[in-house]
Amino acid sequence: MSTTKRDKSPKGEGFSPTFQIRIPPDLREQLNTEAAKDEMSLGNWFKELARNELKRRGIEPKG
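== Toxin-antitoxin system HicB family antitoxin ==
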């Protein structure tokens, strides 16, 4: 289980641009459940997932 918590430190000059995707309700429920297990919002869970995937591919994540 991950212990990553929400990073509340300021980043740059304000809000990041939004990224919207459509997710079927059943999949959304599964994703929400897993994010809650890690005590994260779904948005932060996706960011952590993306950062981990970049690292797995040998790319250092920015931001």
